[in-house]
Amino acid sequence: MSVFARFRRRRTPYRATTDEERIARYVYLLGTLPASVIESAHATAFADLPPARRRELFEQLRPFLAESERDTAAEDPTVIARLVRRAEAHRASRASAGGADAAGRPLPSATATAVGVDVDPRDGVDVRSMLLSAGVMGIVADQFLVSSSIAAYYTVGAGSLQLDAAPAWVGETYDPGAVGLDGGGIDGAFGGGFDAGGFDGGGFDGGGGFG
Fold it and tell me: Please, which domain of life does this record's source organism belong to (predicted)?
């Protein structure tokens, strides 16, 4: 059996940790991994949500749809993952340009408000708040952490060269040679807590909750 197949099948140990710990690790990886890896892992995670929940997320992410995607299936997890990637890229762009507060919340444009100009609907989309309000943050975090995309990144991808610089739990979880496939590493538990990181490099949002 392949490393990745075993990683997907052995899920019980990961349930030993709290929801808070799993979400913290999910958020850390969101602020660390390449966007392409995050998108692939999100597609896996969203596939485990009920279709009604996927449609709900899709509707909230609709401002990020391209014209060519207007007729796409609302419950397609790969499309939702793509829209989330665009939403996060937009949020990061606004934050770097001073268009968001420290917690990542969009700031209203004073100029636009004063002259009655419509605000970009994309500015009001906050992925983390969206997942929380839909009640699916824990499910998404669980499935994201055990996705084959994340395992591949840290076992045979670029992440395998960066394990020494990562929090200890990353190596213990994803490095098959750290303790051994059955005693630790990929088949070990998600022991420990919130080490560092986050969407903005410090905690859930750079310094204080999801915001």
Answer: Bacteria
